[in-house]
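Q: How do we represent a protein-ligand complex in a form that can be generated token by token?
A: Start from the inputs.
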Amino acid sequence: MDGNGRWAKRRHLPRLMGHQAGADALDRTMHWCKEAGIRYLTVYAFSTENWKRSSDEVSGLMKLLSHFIKSKEKELVDNGVAFRVIGRREDLSPRLQKEIAALEEKTKGGDFTLVVALSYGGRDEIVRAAKNFNAEAQRRREHGESVEDEAVFSSCLDTAGIPDPDLIVRTSGELRLSNFLLWQAAYAEFYFSDVLWPDFDKQEFDKALASFSRRERRMGGRKGEGEG
Ligand code: IPE
Ligand code: MG
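Then emit the structure tokens for the protein with IPE bound:
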């Protein structure tokens, strides 16, 4: 969800108002995803690098997050949205961790999943997964369960049980992955947009989906290893 700061700067507003506008853009996008029959939306809300920002901006973002969690509960439950966090959640305040766990629990039956990456870094996630991998593979062998390495490794990631993304949209003109879903992005299509995240509108959303469908058709819907 990149470009909040630039969006605010252009309007001579404080950065936090850009983040607030970004939260509104997320609301809208979630709605369009549901309408389009998409079942998983993952947003990069706060990276392991973002802790280096000014303490004012970090605490403002944490407050915004806490507000989102508290104010959205009913809406998420009513709309069948399962809320899930990936990343180093232990870095967050104990209070925020509790709020997150409670919302995950209350919404877990939802048929649409909103995954929020918080204090998230793809490399960090892979290192943490690697630590669990040996033990998990060993356990499976002992129980006579199949140990297909990639699948077991995937199940050690924060995204266990969540399918790999089909499409990754990067806003605000950046052409980098910036440590987002490194493992999971192996076969994802990319859509790069110059639009700043708070300005991400239905037209841009439709363009992203259209570019994905065109490529899917060209590839004959093939995914993964057989890909030429
Ligand atoms: C992304 O917007 C939101 C967060 C990382 C929380 P930025 O804050 O990175 O916006 P720009 O890149 O300064 O425009
Ligand atoms: Mg940025």
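The mean pLDDT is 95. Residues 214 and 220 are 10 Å apart (CA to CA).
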